[in-house]
Amino acid sequence: MAAGQQFSKIQIATAIALLFHLVGLVGILGFKSDLIIRSTPFNLLLSFALLLWTQEEKNISFWLFTATVVVVGFSVEVIGVNTGWLFGNYSYGTVLGSKWMEVPFMIGINWFIIIYCCGISIQALLQKIIQPVAGTPVAPSLTLKAISVITDGATLAVVFDWLMEPVAVKLGFWQWHDGSIPLYNYVCWFVISILLLILFRLCRFSRRNKFAVNLLLIQFMFFLLLRTFYHKN
């Protein structure tokens, strides 16, 4: 790096996220530290703050999208926990911090992180695929691109939830009353993700944030390694 050259927001945010996730991996896999596990709410808030910091354009539409996803994400979990109508029969532990109506406040933040990162990542991937054929007669229509972002983003969100679920149970984030993760959970995740990603497409704000892509990759690797190697005593 040339003398005097400054790091970009994306580089700084990625380095911070990578550092905290590495500390988490070492603390959980190496030391099985309860302190590290119970710092999860801080890690979620940090990731949320970094996503906001690196968002290029924070207009009214962006804040509307952010607030809606947080509120809807929290609300569907309240319905799920208290009625069993969504996701299945489950309950939250104490690891994720303070709760209201049996749901941790951090869950709304977690929904935003997943939906935003999946939407941005699919948008970025499609952009790379579409650019080489832009201007040709076979270039995809805006409608086709929107449908792809919504459906592929929702699929990616469900895959992330599938990867995270066993780890979250072992770490005490939540527990399934029937002892297994129902298929119904993933169906609900897909449907709700579809609805939130429709909003993602409708709201007019900049959907370019390389850090969101980096954070999703970091979290994928984090949960993949924990799913592979972590066994709680």
Description:
- With 233 residues, the protein is mostly helical.
- The protein has one domain.
- Helix content is 69%, strand content 4%.
- It contains eight helices and four strands, in the order H-H-H-H-E-E-E-H-H-E-H-H.
- The strands form two sheets. The chain has a two-stranded antiparallel sheet with strand order 1-4. Strands 2-3 form a two-stranded antiparallel ribbon.
- A hairpin with a 2-residue loop joins strand 2 and strand 3 (103-104).
- Helix 1 (9-30) packs antiparallel against helix 3 (40-54).
Say how many strands there are: 4
Number of helices: 8
The portion of residues assigned to helices is 55-70%
Total individual domains: 1
Q: Please summarize the sheet with the most strands.
A: 2 strands, antiparallel
Task: Give the CA-CA distance, first to last residue.
Answer: 45 Å
Strand order of the largest sheet: 1-4
Q: What is the chain-wise order of helices and strands?
A: HHHHEEEHHEHH
Contiguous runs where pLDDT drops below 50 for at least 5 residues: none
- The percentage of residues in β strands lies in under 5%
Report the C-alpha radius of gyration, rounded: 18 Å
Helix and strand composition category: mainly alpha
